[in-house]
Design goal:
By secondary structure, this protein is an alpha+beta fold. It has twelve helices and 16 strands. The protein is 26% helix and 18% strand. The longest helix is centred in the middle third of the chain and has 27 residues, at 138-164. The model is unreliable at 164-175 and 370-376 (pLDDT under 50).
């Protein structure tokens, strides 16, 4: 579900016993991202009489929020801390040894339930303002809301099929989380704030729908098929050949493979970021373009590093990991850096990883949210913008 819908994750595989193989994440932020549509659980027990407030909760409902689903950030706390050291109990090297020796039930009664040995501690919600420099607040919110709607659409499909013992949905095998978002935004009972409406609209395939008049339909299960439906034939023909019998065939691809697919005539059109195709020989003509003010190509460096490229020499070259070689080369030309004083290693994938995992590289390029936005990688920071919006 996550991979097919463009959500980044660390999972590699999971078997029927629930054993997961995933990438190792060196530093995990203490922030937990939660989506709530109904005032239940922590919210109901934390805010006095909130269910009676009609400015927050819909009346005569199951506690549904007037604003629709919202994202809450929680600070992860340990379950129990020591009353003496105020540190998490499981940081004690003998914690698990003692638990195994006496058994979980006796360990709980003797240690965890004993206020002289342990103080219960739970997660607490935290304002976005405090974690601005810790995480990229906007992206986790977008990912969490999108995942919420994906799961909701699949559960609706499942319970619809099992409730009537047959499929009652006309397009039962398609992902329709975008339809769920549409229903949410059209719900006249709700009063969704403007900032939340903008977040929901960003999750939908806005460029394809609003600019090209194409509705993208993804499949469920293990099917990788992606279909397209023309919303408005006249607007669609503004950019594509007029053919009443045309059938769309969409092919999801890694951005770096797209120029090759176009040059070899495997596909006839691309929907991608300009920075991707400009990194390769010109094999395309732009039919339509919409500038995204939120993203840019930038060069990253290690935090605290002093970057002075003009001091590099032919004998002491700066080594740079670059996925967008042509952009970086052009940028150094513009700031009058001698090409004999640096060397670009062309890499694919997370080029900033070359700053984290080795000391050989001075800089690495990356697509970031905005020129002034700090990357979520705690080891790196922005040095300069290569392609600014």
């Amino acid at each position: 579900m996550m991979w097919r819908n463009g959500l980044k994750h660390s999972y590699r595989s999971i078997n029927s016993n629930g054993i997961i193989v995933s990438d190792f994440i060196d530093e995990i932020s203490p922030i937990e991202v939660i989506v709530k549509r109904y005032c239940q659980g922590t919210d109901k027990n934390s805010y006095y009489d909130i269910l009676e407030n009609e400015n927050i909760v819909l009346p005569n409902s199951n506690g549904e929020y007037l604003c629709g689903p919202y994202v809450r950030l929680d600070w992860r706390n340990p379950n129990h801390i020591s009353p003496k050291t105020r540190k998490s109990l499981n940081e004690n090297p003998y914690y698990y040894i003692y638990e195994q020796a006496v058994g979980k039930e006796e360990f709980f009664n003797k240690i965890l339930a004993n206020k002289l040995c342990a103080i219960p501690f739970v997660d607490k919600n935290i304002t976005e303002d405090l974690v601005t420099h810790l995480i990229d607040v906007k992206q986790p919110k977008l990912s969490a809301l999108k995942m919420f709607m994906i799961i909701q659409s699949i559960l609706i499909e499942y319970f619809t099929k099992n409730k009537f013992h047959q499929t009652e949905l006309s397009t039962y095998n398609s992902y329709f989380y975008t339809d769920e978002i549409g229903k949410l935004l059209m719900n006249t009972q709700l009063n969704i704030p403007t900032n939340l409406q903008e977040l929901w609209l960003m999750i939908r395939d806005r460029f394809a729908e609003e600019q090209l008049e194409i509705k993208i339909i993804r499949q469920s299960g293990r099917s990788l098929c992606v279909k397209g439906e023309i919303i408005d034939q006249n607007k669609f023909c503004k950019y594509f050949d007029h053919d009443e019998n045309i059938k769309l065939s969409l092919f999801p691809s890694k951005p770096k493979d797209m120029p090759w697919l176009l040059a070899s005539k495997r596909v006839i059109h691309l929907v991608t970021f300009e920075t991707v195709v400009k990194n390769y020989p010109t094999v395309y003509i732009i039919l339509h373009e919409v500038a995204d003010p939120n993203i840019c190509l930038a060069l990253l460096c290690r935090k605290g590093a002093c970057i002075e490229p003009k001091k590099s020499t032919h004998q002491n070259k700066s080594l740079i990991a670059a996925e967008h070689v042509s952009h970086v080369t052009r940028f150094f030309e513009q700031i009058n850096i001698n090409p004999s004083t640096y060397h670009l290693d062309r890499v694919t994938g997370s080029s900033e990883g070359y700053l984290v995992n080795t000391d050989l590289y001075l800089l690495a390029d990356a697509i970031v949210e905005s020129y002034l936005t700090k990357t979520t990688n705690t080891h790196c920071t922005l040095w300069n913008g290569v392609v600014k919006r």
